[in-house]
Amino acid sequence: MEGAPSIGAFPQTPAVSRRRQAPMSPPTSDRKQRSAATSSTNNSRLPVAPQPSGATTTPNSTPVIPTTILDAPTQRLYALAIYFFLFAWKLYDWAKLVEDNTESFWLFLKWIAIDLVFLFGLPELRIPWLELSQPFVVVLFFFHALLDWMFMFNIGLPWQAWLLGFVKVFYDREVAISEHNVKLSSILHNSSLIMGRQIINILPEGSAVLNPDHVPFCLGGDNKVAQIPMYFNATIPIEVELIRVDLDTNAQEVMKLSRGQLRDIERQAKKHTPEGGESVVQYSYPVKKAGAYRLGKVLDEYKLEVQRKSGFTFVVPCPRAWVGSTPSSERCIGDLTDLSLQVEGTPPLKIVYSQTINGKERGFHFQSLQPDGFSSPLSGSFHSTALTGPEDDEDISWARSQRIPVNLNESMHTSGEWQYSVDEVHDAFGNVVKYASPVDDPEGKPKPKHLVQKFVVKERPRVRLEGCDLKTPLKVAKGESKELPIRFEISGPTRDDTSHSLTWQFSPIDTLTESGDHGDVVLAGEHHARNAHDRPRISAPGLYTLKSVTAGSCEGEVQEPSSCLLLNPLEPKLTIRSEEIPDICAGNTIGLRVDLDLVGTPPFVIRYDEITNGYREPKKIVVYTLRHQMELIPKLAGIHQYIFTHIGDDVYRERKLTGPEYVLEQDVRPAATAIIQHSEGKTSACLGEEVDVPVLLLGDPPFTLEWETIYDGKRKYQKATDIQKSTYKIKTAPLTQGGEYTLALTSVQDKRNCRNFLRDEIKINVRRQSPRVAFGQIENRRKTMAVEGSTVKLPIRLTGEGPWKVSYVNLDDPSKVMEKTVRHDNDFLDVKSRGVFQIKDIWDNQCHGVVDSKASTFEVDWVPRPKLRMMVTPGVHESDGHYVLDPVCEGDVSGFEIDLKGTPPYHVEYEVRHQPGKGKGSLSRKAFDTAVSKAPIQMETTKAGLYTYTFNSLADNQYTNNRDFEPIVVQQKVNQKPTASFVKPGQTFKYCMSEQRNEESIPITLSGVAPFSLEFEIKHQSGAGTEIYRTPAINSHTYDIKIPRERLRLGIQQVRIRSVKDGSGCQSTTTEIGGPSVQVHLFDAPSIYPLETRTDYCVGDRISYTLSGTPPFEVWYTFDGVERKAKSPTTAFRRIAESPGEFVIKTVSDKGSECRAPVEIAKTIHPLPAVKISKGKNVRVDIHEGGEVEILFEFWGTPPFEFTYTRSSNARKGQKSQVLETRHDVSYEHSKVVRASQEGTYEVVAIKDKYCAFSTNGLDGEKNKESSQKLLKYT
C-alpha cells in the first residue's frame, strides 16, 4: 500500500525524497555514491516516513528558508509558536465577546482570512515534516472555520467556562472608565470592605433581667402604657414578683405576674429553645403607673430563686414645656423679652426652642435645668447604670417630676416680628417630646398657642433741633409765632403712621441764669404731632429744651442740639440828619447830604419818594449797617422833596414812617455844565463833509459855550454865546483833509456868569478818498452769452469801506432801479434777465461815491434751448398723449429711438417706473450723454411688470436745466418668467438614512405666478445615472424641499434646479436660472444604546452599551466633570467602574459619519458598602449565662444597610469551626448595636446598602432572607 498513505502523514525527509527522484538506471558510480549517502543518512536521521500518494518529486521541494540559515527543527518551532500566538489572540477576541455578551461578523471574517493565509501558506514554506497535503489543509481549514464561527458568534460550548477561566488566568485586565486597564479581581476582592469579628464565650448560668437595654419610659400624652421588657435566660419562671416604688411617697407596691403571663413566657421558651440548647425569652410587661420598678423574687420550675439584678427601671411622667403668659406683645428696640418658659419633668431637663426674627429662624437650647441644691445620680456623665437607678433601697425622690421656670431676658435689637417657639423637651432619662412645626405637620396645623409667643418690636424715634441752638437763636417779631425747628427720625422702612408726642422745658428770657441755662422758672410743654412734619409753634422769648419723644409705646432719644433760644429783637427805627451841599461859585445849594441812624436787625430796607416839580418817583435803598450816609444831588433845578415812607429789617416786615422828621426838601440850582450827546465818544465822516455834534446844556440860560478843534497838532478855538436852549448843535467846517480830528469842550457859563471847566470831547475820523465803482470784464469784454433762466454774475470793482450799496438798471426797463448791498471790493451783481445793465450810483457804509462812466454798462444775452422728439416706428403708437410699445417677455430685447436738437453733446435724463403685478413699484432715474442727433433707448425687460419711461430733462452743452421742456412718456408691459433659487446655494446638507425629528430641509424661493412645478437633477458622486425628482404643485413663493430617501444614496450627491414652470405657462430652464446647486450628504448615523435600563451601578460593575454604525467608533463621555474620549473598534462598548462618580455619555460618532450624534445617557456609580464589626478588630468576650454583649456594626455607604452575619462555633483545637446560624438585619443609620447572648464567633459575610452589595463567601447581598435561617438570640 505504498501509494495510499494516511492523511496527515509526515512527508519524507529531503534526502529520501531526492533518492526517490533519481533516474531509474543511474551510473554505477552514482549508485554507489547514493548508496553511501543513503547509508550515512539512515545512520544519522530519523526513520523515513511514508510518502503521500501521488507525491511527485521536483527540484523545488527544498525549504523556502534554507536549512543552512535556519535548520528544520527551528523552523518547525517558529511555525508552531506562530500558530499558538494566533490561537491565543483568537481566544482573547473570543473572551472579549463573551464578556460583552455579543457577536462580531467582522472578527469572524478576520479570523477566516488569517486561518486561510496561515494554513494554506504553511505548506508553501516546505518546512520538513510540515509539508501538509492539500486535502488535509482543506479539512483543517474547515475545522478552524467552524471553530471561528463558534467563537466569534459566541455560541455556547460545553467547555466554555473552563476555557474562559483558563484565559483569565493569564489575562484578567479590562478597560476602566479612566481609560486604563485595571484588574477586576483586585476591585471585587477587597478585604477592607468587611473587617472584624466578635467572639463570645458563655458561662452557663440562669438569670432574669429587667430592661437590660436601659430603655427610658414615660407616661403622658399618647403614651398611656409602658412595655417594660423582661429577659429570662436558661430558665422558665413559675413565679415573678415586680416591685414598684411610688416616686412621690416612696411607698412600695409588690406586683406578681399572672398565670396567663407565666404560661406565655413558658410557651415562648419552648418555641425558641434549640435542641440540646438553652433559651433566652423576652417578655414585655405593661405598666400604667409612674414609678421605679425592679424585679423582686423570681422562682424557676424547680422553685429555686433565679439570679436577678436589683436595679430600678424608672417610668416617669413625660416631660412637657410651655410659654408663660406676658402682659403685652409689643416691644421697642432695646427692650428685654421678659419671657418665661415653663419646663416640667424629671431634672436635669433640657429644652430646645427656636427664635424667629423677621422670618429667619435660629435654634437654641438650655440644658441641665434643675432646682437649686438639686442632686441626681443622672447629673454626671451618662452610664448604663444611670437609667436603672441605685442598687440599694435609697431615696428616689430625685426622680420626681418638677416644674422649673426658664427666664429669657434678651435684648431685642432688631425691629420687626419676633417669635419664640418650644420645639423639644428632654428629661434626665432621655425621654424626648417633640412639638411638630407647621412645616413638618402633614396637615400644616399651627402649634398650640401655649407653645408660641409672638412680639412686635418697633423702632425708637429720634429728635433733634436743626438751624437753632444757643449760638444761633431764633428771632421772631413781637406778637408773632414760629415753628420750633424739630427734626423727627425713625429707622426702618417708611411708616404710614409717624405720629408722636414731644415734651420740652421752657424758661422765660428774663429768668435765665448768667450762663444761659434754665433759671428758677421752668415751664413744661408738650405737643402731639400727627406726622413727622407737624411741629409746635412758639412765640414767647426764652430757652426751649427738648426732654422726650414718644411714638406709640416707644420712648425715643433726644439728640443734640436739644436747646433753642427764642428772641424778640427791637423794632426797626430810623433817625435822619441832613445838611446842604453849597456851590462855591454861586453860593447856592446844589444838593443834600443825609445821615441815617438805624436801630434793628440788619439788613434794612428803606423806601422813600422823590418829588421833583410835581413828579413823584419811588425809590429804595438797602443798608447793611446801623449807620449810613447818602447824597441827594439832583441834576435839574427846582424844588425837590424827599419823603421817607417805610422801613423794614431782617425780622420785622416793612413798617410805615410818619411825621415831619421823615420829610426833606431843598431848592436846588445846579452849576452850569455841558455834555456831548454821543454814546461812543468817536465818529467818522466823509471827505469834505460837515459834522454836527449835539451838546446838552445844564443850568440857567443864556449859556456861553467854548470849544476847540484839534487836527495835525493845530488847535482852533471857537465860541458860541447867548444860547437860550438847553441843547446846542456844533457844526464843523467842511473837513477837506483826511485824518483824525478832535472836538473838545473847554468851558461853559450860564446867567450867573460862573465859568465852569469842561472835559468832554469827541474824535472824528475823516476819509482820505471817496468810494468808486465800475464793471469788470468777462473774457476781455463787457458782454456775455448765458443759459436762459440762469443767474449771470456781472463782475464789479469797488473802492471804499464796505458794505457798499450799488444802484443799477436794465436799459430795457430803465424805470426799475435795482439795488444790491455788496460786501467785497471784487464782487458780482446777480442778474436773471437779458439786456444792457448800467450802474447808476454807489454808497459805501457812510459816504457817497463815484461811478466810472467808461465801465458803467454790461450786456447779457441768452443761448437757444435744446429739443427732444420721439421717432415713430412699427411697434410704437401714440395713445392718450403718450407712446406705447408692444408687450414683450421678460428677458427679451426691446428699444426705440429719439431725435435731439440743440448744442451737442446732449444730456438726457429720464425716469423708469416699474410697477409689478403685486407689491410696491420702483422708480429709477437714468441719464445718458450723446453727441449725435439720434439716440437709441434700450428698454428694461429684466423684471416683469409695466414700465413707464418719462423723459423729464434735456440738457445740452449750454442748458443743464431746461425748464421749458415738456416731458415725453413711453410705456411697455413685460411679462414675467418664473424663477427658483436655493436660499443657501453651495451649502452641504447632511442627512441620516433614518429620518430625524428636527431634520433640516432645503429652502428655496420662487417668483412668478403660482402654482409652480419644479424639476430637480440629483447626481451621485459615484457617477451613477442622474436621478430626476419632480415636485408636486407649489402654491407659495417659498418652499422647503425634503427629498425622499429612495431618491438618495449613501454618500454625496449634487442637487441642481433643472427647470421651473409657473401658472402663467412661462418656464425657465437651468441655463436661464444660472444653475445653482447644493450638496446632500447621506449618512448612516451612529447610535448607542445601554444594554441595561438601570442607571445606578456599583464599583466593579461592567457598564455595557451597543453601538450601531460603521466601526471604529468614538465615544465622548464625562466622568465626575472630566471629559474623556474613548474608541471602540467593535459595536460593543464596555467599561469597568473602578471608582464612584457620575458617568455620562455625551456624543458618539463612527467612521462612516462626520456627525457626532448627541446623546445624554447618565449612569451613577456608587461605592461598594463597607462594614466593620467591633471597630474592625477580633474581640473576645466571656459572659455568664443570661448576660449579653453589645456588638457594634459600623457602616459606610448609602443607607439603608442590609447585612448578613453568621454565628459560628468557636474554633477548638483540632476542630473546624462550623456556621451555626445566619441572620439578616437592616440598619437605617451608619451604625447599629446588636446585643447577643449566645456563644460563638460573629462575623459579617455580606453587606448591602441602597445601591450596592458585597459578600465574602458567595452570598448574594440582594437575596431575601430564607425563612429557615436561625435568628440570633437576645437576653
UniProtKB/TrEMBL annotation:
Keywords: Membrane, Transmembrane, Transmembrane helix. The chain crosses the membrane at residues 77-92, 104-123, 135-159. Residues 35-45, 53-64 have a biased composition (Polar residues). Residues 71-155 form the Nucleoporin POM152 N-terminal transmembrane domain. The lineage of its organism: Eukaryota, Fungi, Dikarya, Ascomycota, Pezizomycotina. It comes from the Eukaryota. Residues 1-64 are annotated as: Disordered. This is Nucleoporin Pom152. GO terms for molecular function: structural constituent of nuclear pore. Residues 568-670, 888-976 form the Nucleoporin POM152 immunoglobulin-like domain. Residues 460-564, 771-857, 1171-1253 form the Nucleoporin POM152 Ig-like domain. PANTHER family: NUCLEOPORIN POM152 (PTHR28206). GO terms for biological process: nuclear pore organization; protein import into nucleus. One of its GO terms (cellular component) is nuclear pore transmembrane ring. It comes from Diplogelasinospora grovesii. Residues 207-313 form the Nucleoporin POM152 first Ig-like domain. InterPro entries: Ig-like_POM152, Ig-like_POM152_1st, Ig-like_POM152_9th, Ig_POM152, Pom152, TMD_POM152. Residues 1086-1163 form the Nucleoporin POM152 ninth Ig-like domain.
